[in-house]
Every structure is written in C-alpha cells, then in structure tokens.
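Let us practice reading a record.
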Amino acid sequence: MVKEASYLDWNNSIQILNKAHQADLFVLIIGPKGTGKTSLVRDFAKSKNAKLESINFSLRTRESHLIGTKTLTNGTVSFEEGLLIKSMNEGSMLYLDEINSAEADVLLRLDEALDDRRQITLKESTGEIVKAKEGWFVIATINPLTHSGTKELPPQLLSRFPVRIRLEYPPEDIELEIVKRHVSGNHDSEIVQAIKLANILRQAAAVEELFYSPSLRETIAFGKLLDGGMSPKESAKIVFGNVYTQWGNIEYQKVNDIITSMFGN
C-alpha cells in the first residue's frame, strides 16, 4: 500500500512559511522545476485550513486572468473577477507559480496589488478600489534564469516578497524517502541507483553538458514503474533516457550509455 504522499519538509521550509504567515510577510520560493515547490505550498495551505487560489504564469498569462473581464449575458454586462481579485476579496491564500515567466504588463498589475496598501484599482470595470481582506497571504515561486522562458524580476516586485526560501534538489537519502512515499514495493537499492543517475544528469545540465535536468517527478515515476513490474533498466530508459531524443541521437546515446553503465546490458 502506498503511503500518503505528504510533503517531506527536509529544509524547514514549513517553519519559515509559518513565521512569514505570522508576520504577514509574503514569501518567494526560488528553485528549479520539480523540487517540490508546489507540493510545499499545497501542504502549507492545508495545514492552515486555507483556501488556495493558484495562478500558473506563462507568456500567455494576461491581465484579465488576474483582474477579470467584462462579460455580456442575456444583454446584461457584468464583471467576472480574475483570480487575483477573487483571492483579495476572500482573503484566501494566493499561489503565484513561476511569476518570472510573466510579461511586464502582468507584473505591473501584480506589483500594484502587492505593495503595503494591498489594494488595486479596477480600471477594467467601475474604477473601484479593491482592498485585500485581512489574512490575505501570497506565496510566489520563480525558476532560475537558466530555465527557458524565465526573466529577471524587477527589483520593486522582488521587494514585495521579503521572505525568500531556496529550494534545491534534496540530498540523496532525503530524495529516497520522498520517492518511497509514492511507491508500494521495496525497491530501495534500485531507486538509490535512479537517484544517482538523476543527479549525474542534473549536474551535467547545470554546466550545460546536457539540455535537460530530471526532477523529483522522474525519480518518483521510476519507482512507480518498478511497482508495475518493469525492470530497472527499462524504467530508467523510459523515464530518464528517452526524453533526450528530442535533442538528437548524440544527446540520447550519451545518456543511454550512462544508463547502461549503471543498470547493465
């Protein structure tokens, strides 16, 4: 039976979030994809019994997604609130995921809402001022600038998040414990090998020898394939190796050779 996959707080992030929440200070979590940033935020919201509103930013995110838009229904014009306005009105917890993937105009509207007044003018509607309900709390995440589509955040927006948590890939023993929370079988030795493989690939990606850095999701997927009866080498090729095909056969073969050296022919 698979254990409940709660967040394993290996670097005291929950404690930092609790202190920030008590002090009414917004939080920025910095780290690469797949290090558990979203799981951390979801577990923290659950621990506070807080309603969590989430916005995942990309180049396609528009002001209307945050603020809202006018709609026409049966001849009647109304204003449909965006998630930012909805969260402010409710005083819920707001999760701004990958905000350094957003366009400048979107970030400007965020900056307006996140300053000390915690209010925003609805220029899209009646021009009224929406002031955040007491208890409104915001957590944002950013990926390193080496990640595709990311950009440097303006200093004034960074200053809205005075509490910063650095979340990297965990030590190998901690990653093993995380994976074991998602699998039912006893595959410790094979999973340890997969984690070592993942770290080799992560280190190669960090110095731009490879194009892709596997996340915790991949090591968890490896364990789940073992649960399904797949061999360790086949699981490693499917989860860790095949993705490199998109960068050509040389890249793929380089990783496949590493897999063969670690898991055999």
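A brief commentary: The first strand starts at residue 27 and ends at 30.
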